[in-house]
TrEMBL record, chains A, B:
<dbReference type="InterPro" id="IPR005814">
    <property type="entry name" value="Aminotrans_3"/>
</dbReference>
<keyword id="KW-0032">Aminotransferase</keyword>
<comment type="similarity">
    <text>Belongs to the class-III pyridoxal-phosphate-dependent aminotransferase family.</text>
</comment>
<dbReference type="Pfam" id="PF00202">
    <property type="entry name" value="Aminotran_3"/>
</dbReference>
<dbReference type="InterPro" id="IPR015421">
    <property type="entry name" value="PyrdxlP-dep_Trfase_major"/>
</dbReference>
<dbReference type="InterPro" id="IPR015424">
    <property type="entry name" value="PyrdxlP-dep_Trfase"/>
</dbReference>
<dbReference type="InterPro" id="IPR049704">
    <property type="entry name" value="Aminotrans_3_PPA_site"/>
</dbReference>
<keyword id="KW-0663">Pyridoxal phosphate</keyword>
<keyword id="KW-0808">Transferase</keyword>
<dbReference type="InterPro" id="IPR015422">
    <property type="entry name" value="PyrdxlP-dep_Trfase_small"/>
</dbReference>
<dbReference type="InterPro" id="IPR004631">
    <property type="entry name" value="4NH2But_aminotransferase_euk"/>
</dbReference>
<protein>
    <recommendedName>
        <fullName>(S)-3-amino-2-methylpropionate transaminase</fullName>
        <ecNumber>2.6.1.19</ecNumber>
        <ecNumber>2.6.1.22</ecNumber>
    </recommendedName>
</protein>
Length: 462, 462
């Protein structure tokens, strides 16, 4: 069974991990590795590292593994000989899908689709999911511009050499502090940290401010409403500037919670207003739920907490969904083949795993568990922030178990992160001085207690 | 055992596939689907479709499945309980790799690395492989420019909003007719067909001509040498124009054989000269072996046929290698974490499969088989092109089983492609009027005979 608590015998990383990091570094730059992992002996919420340390994992492989390590139902999927066929015969899915594929999509992705979404395309990671949602928005925007006119020869020939009119001057608006991936198109819309962007070329696309609230929220209602208005005015302004310059804004991409950027939350009202402004400007709302999607907020999609007046135009996903891809409303459906396309177009074996994840989430009532464990986490974090104001800022924030808190300085964050690790808790740093929690969907209130105990110990030490 | 020949009972696609295409089309645009596939009953070189037709597959899932359907050694990999751990616990590989990971890389990717390549990074598809090779070239170029100076605050802050000096004006040169993927960075370097590019924005990056030879080669030596010189002069010219404008060319990306563009071959001398020009201009040579790599040319890497004076700076791969990624020379190794990065950084379960593929290729002498079967294919195709000059152009070309031929018109290509399918042969269209062959590495001379017989039948019919 699962460990009853963390058990750490060496420093983390220990000597075995350090040797393996040195070995890997001969093959590739290995500076981002925390430690090597013994996946065979990892179970549930506990990861075991190469030195035999058993660590409570509240980071879940950057929020990507939904049900914890070696979940018995996941083992069943890969043990089934019929499923094994999908694991070893990966198709060019856009051309030769397996019989039964529409049913698989219906039982997995469509069974948890956001409201109004009947269309879904699979991709293989968050970046190609966003890049292809951008492309679908560009096609839709251009088709509106054409107004039914047919495609000219000049369009077809000019696009081959990256020239107008075939290549468009269209843009995607993004927000300061955002993260949408690290391919060059996505990277143009990413603004969370310079390490991701330095030295690389970027497109000239509009950028607006994302709200930065004062906490506690209840004491700063007026200021935070003004902050919403300031940011929304920037969105309007960017639309005006770029549309006037002929660099038409075809879409706005936004995270429901800016995760890499430091778990920055904005109000439902902000998103409601944002949707209205986008519609007014004839652009598409692209919600990037790569990190927020998949259940960690207590709903499958974080934006379901926002009561948007209309469904989002695109919702992109990856990570906990195991496959990348995007949902879209019918009007954004590509009308030509090969444009939203690549060799693999995702991976059916991942969708088999997802189908089971969706069943388990339902069977075991895991979204309810997320709500319970999330409440426990939030209450405990707020209590600690009150008791240790010299270390923790008063801005604990979260929905479900998608929680975060700030230390009072970047140095203190780094120290708290390191000490949590040494005491057997794997958390995730993000932003300037934030620690984010991204536990598995099987994270229980008892795990929250263990985490809070260790954090309290760390706060007493520093 | 494997089928002894094609067996077709319905039109292809048959009624069951057509029903499934209609079902899928409710969920996503399904216009690129050829037919639905029964992967359980497919074996070796034969794919079975949803209507029970058994089809000789010389397209191999757009050249991506190396050993044919349901290869017994692939089944063994996924049946092994120790391996199943990797299939269900996908890590954030750049942070928490599994113990033993360096050995896995050594036994798989590094065991077949191109000459001089000791460094390899895994990615998840051809597009992120190319995008990240571009990024590594940009970092390397910028570091040379900096000449050891440290990174300024202005660089760090300006890149966050896509501005100079942190965001660079650097470019990657590409060739007319090329295909390097469909994310926006890759797409800027793709020029094979307008369908891929129309309506999307592109960066202003240099483009040069790729040689278009007259066939038969032996009768046009002088003209083709002049064609090489013309294209190389364009490369030099583009370097001059872009470098002078401050849009420094950090790398040149090129396929050893332009595949999507119609299997366009250039001479070893062209690539040797190209490498010299790139070096002279202080840029990096990025060989995109996504389609050409993995053994189909009789060597693991097509450019090993070119006798380049020096190793290529980058070699990118995906498809038959089952994992994406790129090899690079040590000097192009990224020196900071998180820049060549994403959540998954590839997929260890694919590397387990690749490790076995590499063993099987060696054990069963498959590169030798490719050479034998390729010779049989080429001889047969040349013979047919002599006997059916009214249908086939005299430009049969190929290395190993990586073969192609042109029909005398686009319409005839479409008809030949369609009729091949109706007679139970799945080939691949590319370029304007080309049919390409991308058989599995287990394609034997007897399969070449069957293919040639069917092609002859088709040429007699049209
Ligand atoms: S870009 Fe998504 S898998 Fe390669």
């Amino acid at each position: 069974g699962e460990a009853s608590g963390p058990s750490v015998k060496t420093t983390v990383p220990g000597p075995k991990s350090r040797q393996m990091i040195a070995d890997l570094d001969k093959i590739q730059f290995a500076g981002s590795v925390f430690y090597f992992t013994d996946y065979k002996n990892s179970l549930g919420n506990y990861v075991v590292d190469a030195d035999g340390n058993s660590i409570l994992d509240v980071f879940s492989q950057i929020s990507s593994l939904p049900l914890g390590y070696n979940h018995p139902d996941m083992h069943k999927v890969v043990q089934d000989p019929d499923n094994q066929i999908a694991f070893i015969n990966r198709p060019a899915l856009g051309i030769f899908p397996a019989q039964g594929w529409p049913e698989k999509l219906t039982n997995s992705l469509l069974s948890v689709a956001p409201k109004g979404h009947t269309q879904v395309n699979t991709m293989a990671c968050g970046s190609c999911s966003n890049e292809n949602a951008f492309k679908a928005a560009f096609m839709w925007y251009r088709n509106k511009q054409r107004g039914g006119a047919s495609i000219s020869d000049e369009e077809n020939s000019s696009c081959l050499v990256n020239r107008a009119p075939g290549s468009t001057p269209f843009t995607i608006m993004s927000f300061k502090g955002s993260f949408h991936g690290q391919t060059l198109g996505c990277l143009t819309t990413t603004h969370s940290r310079s390490i991701f962007k330095l030295d690389f070329p970027a497109l000239d696309w509009p950028i607006a401010s994302f709200p930065r609230y004062k906490y506690p929220l209840e004491d700063h209602v007026k200021e935070n409403e003004a902050e919403d208005r300031r940011c929304l005015a920037e969105v309007e302004e960017q639309f005006e500037i770029y549309n006037k310059a002929g660099k038409f804004v075809a879409g706005v991409v936004v995270e429901p919670i800016q995760a890499e950027g430091g778990d920055v939350h904005a109000s439902p009202e902000f998103f409601q207003q944002l949707q209205r402004i986008i519609k007014k400007n004839g652009a598409a709302l692209i919600l990037d739920e790569v990190q927020t999607g998949g259940g960690a907020t207590g709903k499958y999609w974080c934006h379901e907490h926002f009561n948007l007046p209309d469904p989002a135009d695109f919702v992109t996903f990856s990570k906990k969904m195991l496959t990348g891809g995007f949902y879209s409303l019918p009007e954004f459906r590509p009308q030509q083949g090969l444009k939203i396309f690549n060799t693999w177009m995702g991976d059916p074996s991942k969708v088999l795993l997802l189908e089971k994840v969706v069943q388990v989430v339902k069977r075991d009532n895991l979204l309810k568990l997320v709500e319970l464990s999330g409440k426990k986490l939030m209450d405990g974090l707020k209590d600690l922030s009150n008791r240790f104001p010299q270390h923790m800022k008063n801005n604990v924030r979260g929905i479900g178990t998608f929680c975060a808190f700030d230390l009072t300085s970047p140095q203190k964050r780094d120290e708290a992160f390191f000490r949590l690790q040494q005491h057997g808790v794997q958390s995730g740093p993000c932003g300037e001085q934030t620690i984010r929690l991204r536990p598995f969907l099987v994270f229980q209130p008892k795990h929250a207690d263990i985490f809070l105990d260790v954090l309290e110990k760390v706060l007493k030490e520093i």
